[in-house]
Amino acid sequence: MENTENRREELIGYLKGLRDHICREFESIETGGSFQRETWDYNKGSGGGEMSVLRGEVFEKAAVNWSGVQGDKTPLSNEDLPFFATGVSLITHMKNPKMPTVHFNIRYIESGDQFWIGGGYDLTPMGFVFDEDTDHFHKVAKDCLDPHGEHLYPKYKQNAAEYFYIKHWQKERGVGGIFFDHVNSGDFNKDIAMWKSVGDTFTDAIMPIYKRRITESYTEEDRQTQLQLRGHYVEFNLLYDRGTKFGFESGGNPKAILCSMPPLVAW
Questions:
Q1: What range defines the domain where residue 126 resides?
Q2: Is this structure's pTM higher than 0.90?
């Protein structure tokens, strides 16, 4: 039990440090505000989380959330197994339509005496695709995963293409990225090293894109295109996203779960 507790504390410490790093990186290009934090308690067990939300002039809304909860019954499971779950999840909704939305999360879950990891990052241009941005994003992802196995990037890239697919529109949500879930190779240290590599390289994937696009001009028509495509993003999160379902089924904070929603949207 002591080793389990130490492992959990180490992972939580890493995740909170990563959250802080991402917030600082986002604030470095924001001219109109800073992240505001709000804590919440888990009412179906122990633990809780922290929401970090930024509303500014560059980031119309960005949410970078950490949570760490445990309870007596694993959510989305038919078995009464105790569980522990911790992770960081984020979403950005940019004011400039030429700056893409980005999504990232990494999570660690214990169910009974088993563990697994999941996560990834993916890019969603809101109507304006720049090939150099897509290429950069995927290069960082590939370079991140290759040291842990050259088979991982093609596999996780395909996972993202399949997972972030909006069935009723018959299209991918964006230009892809990497996605993995329920990973447990039997080697904890190996799995966590890969997991941390994904976390450590996220800002390398997105910040050069944001710095490149921040001064792009746009029209009101561009803005309307962005708002309409945000509608597709909302539809995916509410209809298909497993993380949203896990959050609600586990009794998570609804405000924290739904803070991924964009501040403005059009249908």
A1: 2-258
A2: yes
Strand partners, 103: 91, 122
Length of the chain: 267
267: in domain: no
Burial class (CB in 10 A: 0-12, 13-18, 19+), 215: exposed
CATH of residue 192's domain is: 3.40.1500.10
pLDDT tens, position by position, 30-65:
999 999 999 999 877 788 999 999 999 999 999 999
- Give CA–CA dist 62/88, Å, rounded: 13
Count up the domains in the chain and report the number. 1
Measured between alpha carbons, how far is 141 from 178 in angstroms, rounded to an integer?
7
103 is catalytic: yes
Residue in this structure with the two tokens 């403005």, named with its chain if needed: 264
The residue from 93, 103, 136, 232 that is catalytic is: 103
